[in-house]
Amino acid sequence: MSVLLITGTSTDVGKTVVTAAIAAATLADGRSVAVCKPGQTGVAPGEPGDLAEIERLSGVMRTVELARYPDPLAPDTAARRAGLPELTLAETVAAIDSLADADLVLVEGAGGLLVRLGDFTLVDLAQKLGAPVLVVTAAGLGTLNHTELTTRALHSAGVRCVGLVIGAWPTEPDLAAECNRTDLPRVTGIDLVGAVPAGAGRWDRERFLTAAASWFEPAWSPLV
Questions:
Q1: Would you say 113 and 146 are in contact if contact means Cβ atoms under 8 Å apart?
Q2: Which domains does the chain have, with CATH numbers?
Q3: 37 has catalytic annotation
Q4: What is the reported pTM?
Q5: Each residue of 169-186: pLDDT tens digit?
């Protein structure tokens, strides 16, 4: 089993669509995939969350959500407000270990790297699992600072970052986006391994599956 944790430089940078794209590309390569979303917030019981979107886009069928809280907040805050138990590192590790028969287990975080999922952050989870992290980032102004802060935090914690992916590459990129595509690997020392077209999350499954693998560098593999 390979485990890959997926984080973002902030919220709404495209983590879910990138996770779906990696799942789709891996399934197309004949490998089995499972996806874990430890904490889902801002979604009521019975409503489709991030895992439903990943299933819709990629066709992956094995997914695990450990906790769901109604307020669109950090999971630990949302848990306290709802009077519900916070996630623990131990139960999250156990859930991921239960997926060990899959070739690849993708774990999508919430918000940015240091958002508390419960009594832990994604950094703590990566350290416990000995797993690498992929960083999803934005294309426009501000992304250099946010991305370097995120990758420096990973480096300081001794967690390997296996690449950057731009979560929504615009159809008509402006000067900042074009420059950032060059500068992101330069300032972070981490390879830019992919870019997902803006709006891809609204595509139907057939179109998404056909294109997903082309959004990543041919030499890059999530099976690490």
A1: no
A2: 2-215 (3.40.50.300)
A3: yes
A4: 0.96
A5: 999 999 999 999 999 999
